[in-house]
Amino acid sequence: MTKHLANVGRSIGLRTLGDLNGRNPLELLQYRSCGWRTLAEIEQLIERAISGEFDVARIDESMAATELLTLVEQGIAKLSRRERSFLLARIVGLTFEEIGRRFGFTRALAHQVVIKALDKLRKSWGPRIPRLFEMMKRRCLAIPNASGLTPALLEQWMRGASKNFRLSRKEQVRLIAALDKSIPCSLD
Asked: Number of folded domains in the chain?
């Protein structure tokens, strides 16, 4: 949800999506700062809620890794071209200095763009992504004498997943480590 929509919702007394029940779109347009774009955003938010995106109780723990990586890859596709390019370069192992040099920017700007992209990914699917990370962390810590999430372990968890992913398992582990520092990860 954008800050604008949050402000509009607050100004008209909305606390939940259920508060929209019975309200007419033309009624909403009467409020200050509520235009057609805001209505379109409300419609998208309702569609996301109907699809179960915000229902964290419906997550199958055995499919958490597959769902997490699917949502993250969808989120990467929604990033701007620069954010996507910088993030993917970082995930394959380039330093911020190398990324900056490759794209003609400073190391500091490359760092800022990657941090912004990671933040967008964390927030892209509401509470679902943090819940999936929590499940992954619990699963990693439940394995005795393990060095955390590794590409081999991730491959084992992803068996049976029919989806082809753009990133390799090693890159997926790097991405998970960058998105959630509390998940123990190792590239060995």
From this structure: 2
* Phi and psi, residue 5, nearest 5°: -65, -40
Same domain, 64 and 106: yes
Is 188 part of a structural domain of the chain? no
Report residue 60 CA to chain centroid gap.
18
Is there a contact between 20 and 46 (Cβ–Cβ < 8 Å)? Answer: yes
Residues 38 and 102 in one domain: no
State pLDDT tens for residues 74-130: 899 999 999 999 999 999 999 999 999 999 999 999 999 999 999 999 888 777 888
Contacts of residues 144-148 at CB distance under 8 Å and 24 or more positions apart, as own/partner, are 147/184, 147/186, 147/188, 148/183, 148/184, 148/185, 148/186
Q: Strand, coil or helix: what is 113?
A: helix
Domain hosting 111: range is: 60-179
Beta bridge partners of 149: 185
Task: Say if residues 169 and 151 touch (Cβ distance below 8 Å).
Answer: yes
pTM of the model: 0.68
